[in-house]
Amino acid sequence: MKTRTTAPAAARRRALALTATLSALSLTACGVLGASGDDGADARAKDYDITVGLLLPDRDTARFEKFDYPLIKERIASETDRRGKVVYANAGGSTEKQSEQFRRMVTDRVDVILVDAVDARAVAPDVRRAKEAGIPVIAYDRLAEGPIDAYVSHDNELVGQVQGRALVNALGEKAETSKVVMMHGEPADPNTKLFKKGAMGELDGNVDIAASFDTRKWLPEVAAANMRKAIKKVGAGNVAAVYSANDGMAGAVIQELQDAGVTELPPVTGQDADLAAVRRIVDGTQYMSVYKSFLLEATGAADMAVAKVQERAIQFDALARDVIDSGSQKDIPAMLVPVVALTPENIEDTVIADGVYTVREICAPAYEDDCAKIGLTPWP
Predict the structure, then answer these.
(1) How far apart are CA 200 and CA 253, in angstroms?
(2) Cα separation of 306 and 195, whole Å?
């Protein structure tokens, strides 16, 4: 039975369940996923000899190049006895370039396409083109319009809820009279709408939203320019908190506050657990980020792609336990991975425990003293 929502209270259980599902499916890679009873070695080799097209949107978001692509590439290889391969392209933030890359993959007849769309609406014609060519398309990280076969991401409304709740908690009894600046993401990114919905559900009526901005293509320089406008409107010393939808923008926001002479920084949110953001959380300049398990998302997407190509409906349905609607399609099979609020208290139990960063990477020389204060000590 599929569900439409992922309740915050169930996030930990969902993470454990998803990990168990992925582990179980991994065990079947040498059996069920690669064979169907009377298949011989030649049939299994054919099943494994697949090509996955991977389209990622930009290089400004550190996680895409450092984590998502390598994780998906390795998982596809491990699930196909090292015979499967990934054809990768990054759009560099350009809708037109991504469309060219998408069309090339359709022309080259890849077996399945994983796409993280630069623009959810603009990608729809290319999704239809792939569908007409008999190539399944799975939307990755961001929901895309058009006849997609599945969607793999995090519970993005929950991301906004976690961020908004963190600010309300940080402001405490003064929340209702506190002036908050909101720095949303790219309007064409469907995730932005979900982040905003979740955050507004926590902030609207509980704080004074003094200024609100959308950020073209999630660019930090655009966020910086908008923050300068907010400071001019509200006053640098009157900004009680900043909702920043991701870490790249959070860094720009913090820099503008510092340049304006703010010495006691207000709480600033983020998302993606970029290394620079984790270090800012360690030294206290950024209040929190949202950690989204790249491993679970990337591994789940790779497993779903393999199951789709190999027409393993049971495995595919076990991964896609949720459903979601896009602007052009209803009841899309979906995998929604839960998220965690990243704070100084749980850095060791999240990004370090999951192998995203080592203590040494986080605790560079400039951060040694701050790391020691929260119990992160990479030195003997």
Answers:
(1) 19
(2) 29
pLDDT one-digit tens code per residue, 327-378: 899 999 999 998 999 999 999 999 999 889 999 999 999 999 999 999 998 7
- Those residues whose C-beta lies under 8 Å from the C-beta of residue 351, and which sit 6 or more positions away, are 273, 278, 291, 342, 357, 362
Q: Is 138 in contact with 113 (CB distance < 8 Å)? A: yes
Distance of CA 170 to the CA centre of its chain: 24
Could you give the CA distance from residue 297 to residue 303 in angstroms, rounded to a whole number? 10
Q: pTM for the complete prediction?
A: 0.76
